[in-house]
Amino acid sequence: MMKKIAVLTSGGDAPAMNAAIRAITLSCNYHQLQCVGFYHGYNGLIDDQYVEMEHFDVNPTLQQGGTILKSARCQAMLTSEGVIQACNTLRKHEIDALIVIGGDGSLRGLQAIKQHWEKQVIGLPGTIDNDLSGTDCTIGFATAVTTATHAIDKIRDTANAFERIFIVEVMGRHSGHIAFNVGIATGAEAIISFENFSADRALQKVTELLKAIDKQQHTHGSFLIVLAENLWPGGAQALKESLTEQGKVDSAICILGHIQRGGSPVPEDRNLGTELGLAAVDAIITGQDNVMIGREAGKVIATPLEQVINTAKPVSAHWVNAHQQQLTHYLK
């Protein structure tokens, strides 16, 4: 009997989710498997927003941002009633395997489904935050870094023209991968992220920044501070006010926000989404279950969901040290 594979996207959207959906659909078609989708993430699974997926639905989607299956965050999946209703929908449609593309919360939801549903579950890492273990890069991360880098390059132009100080806040939830990759790529004078800052050091950090800013302004240059979101007490505005109060330094704030989640995915993400989507179907055919498919050191791997969820993925010490060596120049 033909296997029926379902796919949904959950949580924050990430560029190249569509590439993964496309690869799953086309691979199912190649292997003569039936592919179906559920709109609006786990909400659509609970509410039975079911759609059959065909190759003509996904062929022109590689270059599109967002997700053609839509996405959402689902509070009902935090309750046993919501999880059981999701499983009932899967049984109603005689689904043999479920693929979920999303981040940490989405994979937790998939793990909850596995506790009440006897069929195969496969996760794919779809988040711009790059905070999932079991893969070097998550689907969407490369595009988010590229988008933020291009934006900050433009900010640098006007900062140089006016010799101004800019505080640029980037996304990443509780991870510094975007902050460090973008900060180093743009030559930011300061990167403030989870790996090199804690709230109890705010006063010390402001003093450090003021010293670096003073030295940089003597060379008639701009000064860029890349700040990870959800980190500084009171946010970017509070940092700006501290610089003004303690050092009479004026600065401008630019919060990049959701532009980092949108836009056409870069080739790296399109290829990663395609590779992992194909591998997800292969994993189902070979009987794998309760795993996330990722890529490490150039190889596709499968990691147990529990391990992915419970293993932290900090920014490498190499990146943190690379920035510190640059910052030290301004503190001498």
TrEMBL record:
Q: Where is the signal peptide?
A: none
Q: Which Pfam families match?
A: PFK (PF00365)
**The keyword ATP-binding is annotated on this UniProt entry:** yes
Question: Where does the record place the Phosphofructokinase domain?
Answer: 4-284
Q: What EC number(s) does its UniProt record assign?
A: 2.7.1.11
Report the subcellular localization: Cytoplasm
Enumerate the SUPFAM superfamilies for this protein.
Phosphofructokinase
InterPro entries recorded for this chain? ATP_PFK, ATP_PFK_prok-type, Phosphofructokinase_dom, PKF_sf
Q: Which cofactor does it need?
A: Mg(2+)
What biological processes does GO assign it?
A: canonical glycolysis; fructose 1,6-bisphosphate metabolic process; fructose 6-phosphate metabolic process
Which pathway does it serve? Carbohydrate degradation; glycolysis; D-glyceraldehyde 3-phosphate and glycerone phosphate from D-glucose: step 3/4
Q: Which reaction does it catalyse?
A: beta-D-fructose 6-phosphate + ATP = beta-D-fructose 1,6-bisphosphate + ADP + H(+)
Recorded GO molecular functions are: 6-phosphofructokinase activity; AMP binding; ATP binding; fructose-6-phosphate binding; identical protein binding; metal ion binding; monosaccharide binding
Q: What class of enzyme is it?
A: transferase
Per UniProt, which keywords does this protein have?
Answer: ATP-binding, Cytoplasm, Glycolysis, Kinase, Magnesium, Metal-binding, Nucleotide-binding, Transferase
- Single GO cellular component annotation? 6-phosphofructokinase complex
> PANTHER family from the xrefs?
ATP-DEPENDENT 6-PHOSPHOFRUCTOKINASE, PHOSPHOFRUCTOKINASE
* Similarity comment: family membership: Belongs to the phosphofructokinase type A (PFKA) family.
Protein name according to UniProt:
6-phosphofructokinase
Mind giving the lineage of the organism this protein is from? Bacteria, Pseudomonadati, Pseudomonadota, Gammaproteobacteria, Alteromonadales
